[in-house]
Amino acid sequence: MKEARQLAILDLLINHKSLTTEALSVALSVSKETIRRDLSELRAQGKILRNHGRAKYIHRENQDSGDPFQSRLKSHYAHKADIAREALSWIEEGMVIALDASSTCWYLARQLPDIDLHVFTNSQPVCQTLSKRKHIQLTCSGGTLQRKYGCYVNPSLISQLRSFEIDLFVFSCEGIDNSGMLWDSNTVNADYKSLLLKRTAQSLLLIDKSKFNRSGEARIGHLDDVTHIISDAQITAR
């Protein structure tokens, strides 16, 4: 019965952009608690995304189910700001760090002290924020601006990175599934993160507890590839 119900949930989500827990409960004549359990299982299987009380089916061919950057800024913003504040202790004067285009890294950029740092990023909002600092050397990946995500896409990124020795790559992601795989909501950001994760010896994942047991559209890598984690969940930095 559970398998049939979960298949019915997927059918409903395939035919709608997204549905609330209540709408699914009414459509299938079961309790909202039952729907929540089903959605948790489907999310852990990498079949759906859940956000703000709504669920949507992952259309793998789209590779673009992410929320706009401005929407992500408002989601769990207090937790993200706290996580970013804790990340400051990992950054020292004279370092070369890379930041991704996540909202959590934007919160980190806002809190960075104006010291001798070299920051490399593909994030337009991070560039705008750090352009006001006098002592931070800022290098943007450049390329084509993806306005929805506030990031640049540069096909020459691999050759560009050859001239950098990055001490620390700081990033976030859409989710970590129950097998430890890291996911993002689109290939635009996932490709950048995957490349930096492979090319830097030290990485720092900033992730709030809402992102655990979640998947996304595009794979970044595995949790085993990450050297350190900061989270408001009960996980210690490794």
Plain-language structure description:
This protein has 238 residues and is α/β, with parallel strands linked by helices. Helix content is 36%, strand content 23%. It is elongated. The model has no long low-confidence stretch (mean pLDDT 87).
Task: Describe the secondary-structure layout.
Blueprint: H1 2-14, E1 19-20, H2 21-28, H3 32-44, E2 48-51, E3 54-57, H4 69-74, H5 77-87, E4 96-99, H6 103-111, E5 117-121, H7 124-130, E6 136-140, E7 144-146, E8 151-153, H8 157-161, E9 168-171, E10 175-176, E11 181-184, H9 187-199, E12 203-207, E13 218-222, E14 228-231
Parallel strand pairs: 4-5, 4-9, 5-6, 9-12, 12-14
Antiparallel strand pairs: 1-3, 2-3, 7-8, 10-11, 11-13
Based on the structure, what is the oligomeric state of the protein chains?
single chain
Q: How is the largest sheet built, in terms of strand order? A: 6-5-4-9-12-14
Q: Nearest-angstrom radius of gyration?
A: 19 Å
CATH top level of the largest domain is: Alpha Beta
CATH topology of the largest domain: Rossmann fold
Poorly predicted residue ranges: none
Total of domains:
2
Give the CA-based shape.
elongated
Approximately what portion of the residues adopt beta-strand conformation? 15-25%
Question: Could you spell the SSE succession in H and E letters?
Answer: HEHHEEHHEHEHEEEHEEEHEEE
For the sheet with most strands, the description reads: 6 strands, parallel
| Percent range of helical residues | 25-40%
Average pLDDT score:
87
Strand tally: 14
